[in-house]
Write a structure and sequence with these properties.
Layout lengths: L1 E6 L3 E10 L4 H9 L7 E12 L1 H17 L2 E5 L3 H9 L2 H6 L3
Helix pairs in contact: 1-2
């Protein structure tokens, strides 16, 4: 798993490559939640994620809720077809696109 983060004054672009599974959930959590304290919009690119399990889905839900509580905007972009299917089946896409 590899995470690349580019932040400007107003936005952080986070590119995740590899797995979003239980094996790397804690590392992902630390990397994704640390920049939330800044007043940024967060854009997460999941194009290069090749595997996701319930831990990865849970992490995205927690990230959405925490972003909302801190007043930050979170957007997911460029899903791949495997992720699109998982997100559709779990109704995660609808949740993540919904304003809380």
């Amino acid at each position: 798993m590899n995470i690349r983060m580019e932040c400007t004054e107003r936005q952080c672009l986070i590119d995740i490559e590899g797995k979003m599974t239980e094996d790397c959930a804690e590392q992902l959590r630390r990397a994704l939640f640390s920049p939330l304290s800044a007043d940024h919009a967060f854009v997460i690119d999941l194009t290069k994620v090749d595997d996701i399990d319930v831990s990865g889905v849970r992490l995205l839900v927690m990230l959405k809720l925490e972003s909302y509580l801190r007043g930050n905007r979170l957007e997911l972009i460029s899903h791949n077809s495997k992720l699109d299917e998982i997100m559709s089946l779990s109704e995660l896409q609808a949740f993540l696109e919904k304003s809380l």
